[in-house]
Specification:
alpha/beta; Rossmann fold; 7 strands
Length: 236
């Protein structure tokens, strides 16, 4: 039987930023990977002042197509992608529906589950963490739960700048009371970069009047390292 892992992404692109190299590595090892997109990410451009052309409704469709193309780069079949189509920023308002869908997906009892860590800046990230762990408790099974970090809450975001990088991870591991695991993805970094580049709506201006991309280059570079770090739950 193949190993099985489920990756939960609050928004399309979080899965690649947080664990794209690990996903590529596992696919090449013959593992069965599913990706769950919790929200549609429709408001990412509004945060930098873009309200139309594309509109939020148009952007949600753009990001869904980008997610499918990114998955294809990594070798993940489209049938393994699950889109809840929840409006960006409103995950908590749809708790009952989302909890049921998560429980349904996890009823296959995967060996590994990947979620954003609980001290994330964006509320959808924190709610994703909470809902997935709640579903695991309800199902009463014990997968290995890997927490990936995208953007930390204040003041943890200041600690996240500590150098060297290993010391930064050690500090966060102690604060979260979780074990830190580093996955060597050097051989799969080109694939991760190629998958991430499919998210053009986030990486580059998509209209002439747009002053900058949704994701700054300095932010993206933090995720293009030879290893990906995860904080592993000691117990759920």
């Amino acid at each position: 039987m193949k190993d099985c892992a489920v990756i939960f992404a609050p928004h399309p692109d979080d899965e690649i930023l947080g664990c794209g190299g690990t996903m590529a590595k596992k696919v090449r090892e013959g593992c069965d990977i599913s990706v769950v997109f919790m929200t549609d990410g429709r408001y990412s451009l509004m945060e930098i002042g873009v309200h139309s052309n594309p509109s939020p409704v148009e952007l949600k469709e753009i990001r869904k197509l980008e997610a499918k193309r990114a998955a294809k780069v990594l070798g993940i079949e489209e049938e393994k992608l699950f889109f809840f189509d929840i409006e960006d920023g409103s995950l908590q308002k749809n708790e009952k529906f989302v909890r049921e869908k998560i429980t349904e997906i996890l009823s296959g009892f995967p060996k590994e589950v990947y979620i954003p860590q609980e001290k994330e800046f964006h509320v959808d990230h924190r709610v994703t963490n909470w809902l997935v762990k709640s579903a695991i408790k309800e199902l009463n099974f014990r997968p290995i739960v890997f927490n990936y970090a995208i953007a930390w809450l204040y003041p943890l975001n200041l600690l996240a700048r500590v150098r060297p990088r290993f010391l930064q991870g050690t500090i966060m591991s102690r604060l979260l009371k979780k074990d830190m695991v580093c996955v060597d993805v050097a051989d799969f970094l080109p694939l991760k970069k190629a998958a991430l580049e499919e998210y053009k709506s986030q990486l580059q201006p998509i209209r002439d009047t747009q002053k900058r991309a949704a994701l700054k280059n300095s932010f993206v570079k933090r995720f293009l390292q030879n290893e990906e770090r995860f904080f592993v739950e000691r117990e759920i």
